[in-house]
Amino acid sequence: MNWNKIVKLALALLLGQFTIGLLEGAFMPPGLGGVWDIVSAAGSFVVCAVIFAYFANNQPNKPFVHAWLAVLVCVVVAGVLVRVLADWFEAAPWLVVMIEWVALVLALLVGTSIGSARRLRGVNPAEA
Description:
Distance between the termini: 28 Å
Number of strands: 0
Structural class: mainly alpha
Largest sheet: none
Strand content: under 5%
Order of helices and strands: HHHH
């Protein structure tokens, strides 16, 4: 296992999700909860899939294992942050959390598959 890459992937995912959440909080119009949640999950899917694809393209051994371990590290760190910052933010509804989880798992599957396929075909990210 390449723990250096796993930690970097987890930090990239946290940064991507944090940026999406920050933009969502800053620009979400009032009263668009349900529609905006789907738009946010779609944005999260795209950002995370790109991150997973980039890392899988550069990970020759067991890219899916590395991706799942990075998600585990990301979830643990995010869980700690949620507990620490719980007094400042309101809790998200469970349905929104489930939609985001589905988006993250799909991004892992799709992004890692794309990155692995590109690596196996010999496509360098600089050539794309």
